[in-house]
Amino acid sequence: MTTNDQSYYFLKRLCDIILSIATGIIALPICLITAVAIKLDSPGPVLADVPPRVGKNRQPFKIFKLRSMIPNAHQMIREDPKLKKAFAELKKSNFKLKNDPRVTRVGKFIRKYSIDELPQLINVLKGEMSFVGPRPYYADELADYEKRFPQTKKLIKKALTVKPGITGLWQVSGRSDVNFEERITLDARYAHRKNITDDIVILAKSPWVVLTGKGSS
Hints:
217 residues, mainly alpha, 9 helices, 5 strands
């Protein structure tokens, strides 16, 4: 690791800690109100019960998200025969469904404005994620992409050399409207550059994407 890389990672980690604490203070009441709404809207836990995600250097970690779907949604769409068609569409559309039958009423709102992602501030504080970085994939999702798009393996490897982020280059470039090959190209480009200016630009663009719900799912 070069001196420039060390300086970048130190500054990035410092910013992550400061921003996650500051944002967490603001986000706490929003999370509490949302937690009540989730419990009133549908049975199940407040936090999403999802499998581990793939982090930096392929290290698995548990991501914290407010539940926006029915309980056990991840396994259900993969195993329930009634959702076979939906799962086929999910894989075809790069694991993003426009009208996902698993999403609850409250879930539609909090997903649109990324409120469900606020608990990921805990992951940032723990050092498992950063504010800015590639999308954190599920292991089976990533394996499917590597099988379907073998030409992207080098890009995937590069993208996984940095911590995944709450927001990132692809998120402010169309989010779910960007296909996988375009997305992983953007993530690999971000991982290669290691530029704090890029982080600042991405962070500056993110509130507009969240407020407009552009490209969300």
